[in-house]
Amino acid sequence: SFSSNVARGDSVPRRTTAERNTCDTHSMVQSILVTAAVAAAVLLSSPCEASNARPPYNSLCSSSGAAFVFNYRRTLQEQQSMPHIIVRSLAQVEVSAQEQSQEDGTDTDYNPWQYNGPNHQGNVAINRLAEKAARGDRTAAARAEDVLRGLVEQGAADTISYNGVIKAYAKSKSELAVRRAESVLDRMEMSYERLLKQDGQEMMAEMVKPNVRSYSTLLDAYSRNPHKKTAEESEELLDRVQRRYEETDDPDLAVNVYAVNSVLNHWSKSNRGIEGAIGATALLSRMKEQGLVDTISYNTVVGAWARSGATDAGAKAESILRKMQSKAEEDVSWAAATDYDARAPPRPNVRTYCCVIDAWSASNDPSAVEHASALLAELEQKYEETGDEELRPTEFAYGACLNAYSRSEQTDKALLALKLLNRMKELCRSGQNMSARPNIVHYNTVLNACATTSRHYGEGGSVDTLDEAMDIVRALYSEITANESTVRPDDFTYGTVLKACANLLPTRGEGSSFIASVFHKCCQEGQVTFQVCFLLKQAASYELLQELLPKEAYNPKTQRFDIEKMPLSWKANVVERRNRKR
Prior knowledge:
The structure is a single chain. Strands 1-2 form a two-stranded antiparallel ribbon. The radius of gyration is 29 Å and the shape is globular. It contains 28 helices and 2 strands. The chain is mainly alpha-helical and about 575 residues long.
């Protein structure tokens, strides 16, 4: 079990302090070397059982034996001669590991040096740094590359080392992430080709041979930085790897679903509207014929249509959902399955329904509300009938439907939104579906549905409709700000309530006491933003505005305000959200 874990590049299970203290260090190394020799002999004398397995499980099989032998032929004396950069980086990783273990209550004596040679130790360090890069550490990827350089100097770098650094850059927020990831892969390819040309170095070449994970991780970096590379470049790299696999029949280069999904994600997030959605749909059709798609693939394409801005986005997205359902139902053996199985045709899950509802919402189609409501009802029914957790309606499914209501042109959308919000609360209160618990975003969406009702006053709306919407706003605001409330208002909450006052009240300044109380509460909670002040200006009378805003922050002659001159306590709790969707 231990040897097979290392051969696959998996992390080694931690050992307790008591277990480590019972083993003499030198005898442990000797035992590991013996185990390594036996395991390597088996691995090198027989074909890998997983060589024909579905990717990505076969990605490291052909090089695992060589990596295993090389990984364990190092001694404790060789560890002491490792480059300083590896020692320093591993020390940093060790401190991080100890801090994390203290937080989660695990063994604080874990030491990445304790198991084997610098190859594995370096890979542990690189993997730790990749995790730090994913959490936002902008220097972690560069430090992982430093560790890789030290391993290269020692002749200890392998495929896992290079892939780990590419992963670190893929997860990094650095502007140079894509360029550095490409550079690492280029060096990896050059090392492999150089060693392959040298006599007697075939085993060493196998250690650093790029595999499908190398390329799919680079594709992931492309998809995370669509402004650096085009979707066409991603697809060309995918096709190049696929051609190389067909030419060499090398199982390590067999394109897998992860690689395909990275390219689909790149098309989806390319900010190219309909063109991006069409590109994703075309790639999905092509890969579907090769059996290289899964539910995530379909969801990504549906999401591309939701972002496309096309007037028929909802119809396009729902047609993909129906095709998924039809394909899954064709095979009777899988139609009734509730557990995931990689061999089964991709089946819709709750995420699929959310994306389709989003597509209808974004399409501005007059029938968007009816379609969104019908899809949510269908999802609830399927979950009730099957009990499939993959189809359990979540807060996101209800939120997508609420968003469709909010963006619609229907005059009764405020009542529809409130009704759905109340159903969510009832589902949670009764214990039928705890995943339906509403949060502040759901409340804000209902408030926005009320606030935008007045846009249609001359198109079928009535004074009664506006009064009902304003009553809903007052009731929800009271519920949200109550001491026993389960949600906490944010800057969008206060801004939307003020927008409702500006749009729903008959004359500007009416309801001054309510407007003033909302703004005072917003200041007290430290949620004042430029948008809140702008909406306050729309709702309040000139006299009230001068009364509420500091003199140094508001000029009554120009009717302009300066958010920077507002008291710091008024802005203390504002959370900056990048590309926040409401």
